[in-house]
Amino acid sequence: MSLRILLAEENEELSVTLQRALETEGYAVEPMRPGEALVRSAVARLPDAVVFGARAPGSAAIEVCREFRTTPATLRLPVVVLLGSSFEQDRLAVLSAGADDCLMKDVSPVELLIRLKNLLRRLNPALLDTTLKVGDLVLDKNARRVHRQKKEMKLGPTEFRLLEFLMKSPGRVYSRAELRMSLWGDEASVDERAVDVHIGRLRKGISFGKTDSVIRTVRGAGYALGDF
Length: 228
Prior knowledge:
Blueprint: E1 4-8, H1 12-24, E2 28-32, H2 38-45, E3 49-54, H3 58-70, E4 79-83, H4 88-96, E5 101-104, H5 109-123, E6 131-134, E7 137-140, E8 145-148, E9 151-153, H6 157-167, H7 176-184, H8 193-206, E10 215-218, E11 222-225
Parallel strand pairs: 1-2, 1-3, 3-4, 4-5
Antiparallel strand pairs: 6-7, 7-8, 8-9, 10-11
Helix pairs in contact: 3-4, 6-8
């Protein structure tokens, strides 16, 4: 599963241009219209970073940045703001409100990619690592392979994405709704019970033909990858 970027830009042409650039670089982009639901959407979707546009800082953009920094689930979420204003005081106001970076809307896609990559590397180097390791599980993002105790585990594409998502935060309990969102986004036709099916397949795929506690079921809460 690629790093997921929540992109909120009201200019459709700019949004499409940035989405193509990000996807070409290997990011999974989830576009949406900017507005009051931006922070709530970030909490629901759990992206790896947010890029959102604002015509000018005004109270709206500043309040959004402040809300990101006062919401526990997005407290450390990387946030990049694209401004339609070239005034230095506007950029400083957005940065003071909690944005990690602030660029002009006419920034080249290449510069945005470089800034975003550097930001992710600085705030969470593990996100850019191609290998995840939890206990005796090793997941190679580029090779799309999973090994346990040096033996390759055969997983389907959905189970691979599910395991990668869980391995990013071992020990954390995710609800079925959060896991469904990580796999299928806003696809309303997918029932949360499908998560149980894929958890079962994942358990079978990473076990050695016997039941173990690598993936815990937390009654009434969801699932968690054992933190060993």
